[in-house]
Amino acid sequence: MGAIGHPGDIERLRMAAIELASTEGFTRSAAAGQPRQRFAVLGGTRQSAELMEKFLQKEHVTDAALPDAINVAFDAWSVGRLAMAENANKELPERDAIRKYRDEQLANAGMEAAVLARDRKSAIRYRTLADEEVRSALQK
Protein backbone atom coordinates (compact mmCIF):
# COMPACT_ATOMS: atom_id res chain seq x y z
CA MET A 1 0.00 0.00 0.00
CA GLY A 2 1.37 3.41 -0.92
CA ALA A 3 0.34 6.92 -0.01
CA ILE A 4 1.16 10.47 -0.99
CA GLY A 5 0.55 13.32 1.41
CA HIS A 6 1.59 14.76 4.71
CA PRO A 7 3.24 12.04 6.84
CA GLY A 8 1.04 12.87 9.84
CA ASP A 9 -2.14 12.46 7.74
CA ILE A 10 -0.89 9.18 6.30
CA GLU A 11 -0.10 7.89 9.78
CA ARG A 12 -3.57 8.87 11.05
CA LEU A 13 -5.14 7.06 8.10
CA ARG A 14 -2.99 3.99 8.78
CA MET A 15 -3.97 4.02 12.44
CA ALA A 16 -7.67 4.41 11.55
CA ALA A 17 -7.41 1.39 9.24
CA ILE A 18 -5.73 -0.65 11.97
CA GLU A 19 -8.39 0.40 14.49
CA LEU A 20 -11.17 -0.51 12.05
CA ALA A 21 -9.61 -3.93 11.38
CA SER A 22 -9.17 -4.53 15.10
CA THR A 23 -12.75 -3.49 15.80
CA GLU A 24 -14.01 -5.74 13.00
CA GLY A 25 -12.15 -8.71 14.46
CA PHE A 26 -13.44 -7.99 17.93
CA THR A 27 -17.05 -7.52 16.83
CA ARG A 28 -16.99 -10.76 14.86
CA SER A 29 -16.09 -12.56 18.08
CA ALA A 30 -18.58 -10.60 20.22
CA ALA A 31 -22.07 -11.80 21.02
CA ALA A 32 -24.62 -11.55 18.20
CA GLY A 33 -27.38 -8.98 18.32
CA GLN A 34 -25.30 -6.05 19.49
CA PRO A 35 -25.29 -2.97 17.24
CA ARG A 36 -22.02 -2.42 15.41
CA GLN A 37 -20.61 0.60 13.67
CA ARG A 38 -18.97 -0.73 10.52
CA PHE A 39 -17.21 2.37 9.31
CA ALA A 40 -14.53 4.81 10.36
CA VAL A 41 -13.87 8.39 9.35
CA LEU A 42 -10.77 10.51 9.14
CA GLY A 43 -11.38 14.23 8.78
CA GLY A 44 -9.18 17.26 8.48
CA THR A 45 -10.87 18.81 11.51
CA ARG A 46 -12.89 17.51 14.42
CA GLN A 47 -16.03 19.12 12.97
CA SER A 48 -15.52 17.51 9.56
CA ALA A 49 -15.01 14.08 11.15
CA GLU A 50 -18.11 14.49 13.32
CA LEU A 51 -20.28 15.50 10.37
CA MET A 52 -18.98 12.64 8.22
CA GLU A 53 -19.76 10.22 11.02
CA LYS A 54 -23.24 11.71 11.46
CA PHE A 55 -23.81 11.37 7.70
CA LEU A 56 -22.64 7.75 7.67
CA GLN A 57 -24.78 6.86 10.68
CA LYS A 58 -27.78 7.83 8.53
CA GLU A 59 -26.62 6.58 5.11
CA HIS A 60 -24.39 3.55 5.71
CA VAL A 61 -25.86 0.21 4.64
CA THR A 62 -23.92 -2.85 5.78
CA ASP A 63 -24.52 -5.06 2.75
CA ALA A 64 -24.67 -2.34 0.10
CA ALA A 65 -23.65 -3.12 -3.44
CA LEU A 66 -20.23 -1.72 -4.35
CA PRO A 67 -21.58 1.16 -6.53
CA ASP A 68 -23.89 2.23 -3.70
CA ALA A 69 -21.07 2.04 -1.14
CA ILE A 70 -18.81 4.14 -3.40
CA ASN A 71 -21.50 6.79 -3.74
CA VAL A 72 -22.04 6.96 0.02
CA ALA A 73 -18.27 7.12 0.61
CA PHE A 74 -17.75 10.00 -1.81
CA ASP A 75 -20.78 11.82 -0.39
CA ALA A 76 -19.28 11.42 3.10
CA TRP A 77 -15.98 12.79 1.76
CA SER A 78 -17.89 15.77 0.36
CA VAL A 79 -19.56 16.38 3.73
CA GLY A 80 -16.12 16.44 5.36
CA ARG A 81 -14.69 18.82 2.78
CA LEU A 82 -17.70 21.15 3.02
CA ALA A 83 -17.30 21.21 6.82
CA MET A 84 -13.75 22.57 6.44
CA ALA A 85 -14.84 25.63 4.42
CA GLU A 86 -14.45 29.04 6.07
CA ASN A 87 -18.21 29.65 6.20
CA ALA A 88 -19.08 26.03 7.05
CA ASN A 89 -22.37 25.16 8.63
CA LYS A 90 -22.28 22.96 11.73
CA GLU A 91 -25.15 20.84 10.42
CA LEU A 92 -25.27 18.28 7.63
CA PRO A 93 -25.69 19.91 4.22
CA GLU A 94 -28.71 19.09 2.07
CA ARG A 95 -28.30 16.11 -0.28
CA ASP A 96 -28.39 18.36 -3.37
CA ALA A 97 -25.57 20.51 -1.97
CA ILE A 98 -23.50 17.41 -1.20
CA ARG A 99 -23.90 15.99 -4.72
CA LYS A 100 -23.26 19.38 -6.38
CA TYR A 101 -20.04 19.83 -4.42
CA ARG A 102 -18.95 16.24 -5.09
CA ASP A 103 -19.55 16.50 -8.83
CA GLU A 104 -17.71 19.84 -9.04
CA GLN A 105 -14.69 18.53 -7.13
CA LEU A 106 -14.42 15.23 -8.95
CA ALA A 107 -15.00 16.59 -12.46
CA ASN A 108 -11.26 17.00 -13.10
CA ALA A 109 -9.75 15.06 -10.23
CA GLY A 110 -8.21 11.62 -10.19
CA MET A 111 -9.84 9.24 -7.75
CA GLU A 112 -8.36 6.51 -5.61
CA ALA A 113 -10.28 3.96 -3.62
CA ALA A 114 -9.80 0.51 -2.18
CA VAL A 115 -12.03 -2.14 -0.70
CA LEU A 116 -11.61 -4.98 1.75
CA ALA A 117 -13.43 -7.98 0.30
CA ARG A 118 -15.08 -10.08 2.99
CA ASP A 119 -16.28 -12.93 0.82
CA ARG A 120 -13.08 -13.77 -1.02
CA LYS A 121 -11.42 -17.08 -0.37
CA SER A 122 -8.00 -15.53 -0.93
CA ALA A 123 -5.90 -14.34 1.98
CA ILE A 124 -5.45 -11.03 0.16
CA ARG A 125 -8.63 -9.09 0.71
CA TYR A 126 -7.41 -5.59 -0.11
CA ARG A 127 -8.22 -4.49 -3.65
CA THR A 128 -7.59 -1.12 -5.24
CA LEU A 129 -10.29 0.25 -7.51
CA ALA A 130 -9.33 1.78 -10.84
CA ASP A 131 -10.38 5.36 -11.56
CA GLU A 132 -12.75 4.09 -14.28
CA GLU A 133 -14.46 1.67 -11.87
CA VAL A 134 -15.03 4.46 -9.35
CA ARG A 135 -16.33 6.90 -12.00
CA SER A 136 -18.67 4.24 -13.36
CA ALA A 137 -20.13 3.68 -9.89
CA LEU A 138 -20.58 7.40 -9.32
CA GLN A 139 -22.64 7.76 -12.50
CA LYS A 140 -25.25 5.26 -11.30
Describe this structure in words.
The protein is mainly α and 140 residues long. It folds into 2 domains: 30 residues, no CATH class; 98 residues, no CATH class. The chain contains 5 helices and 2 strands. The protein has a two-stranded antiparallel ribbon. Helix 2 runs antiparallel to helix 3. The longest helix is centred in the N-terminal third of the chain and has 23 residues. It is globular and about 45 Å long.
Q: Keyphrases for this structure?
A:
single chain; about 140 residues; mainly alpha; two-stranded antiparallel sheet; 5 helices; globular
In short:
With 140 residues, the protein is mainly alpha-helical. It has 5 helices and 2 strands. The chain folds into 2 domains: 1-30, no CATH class; 41-138, no CATH class.
The main sheet orders its strands as: 1-2
Distance between the termini: 28 Å
Number of strands: 2
Order of helices and strands: HHHHEEH
Measured as a percent range, the helix fraction is 40-55%
Provide the domain count. 2
Largest sheet: 2 strands, antiparallel
Radius of gyration: 16 Å
Layout of helices and strands:
Blueprint: H1 7-29, H2 46-59, H3 66-83, H4 95-106, E1 113-116, E2 126-129, H5 131-138
Antiparallel strand pairs: 1-2
Helix pairs in contact: 2-3, 3-4, 3-5
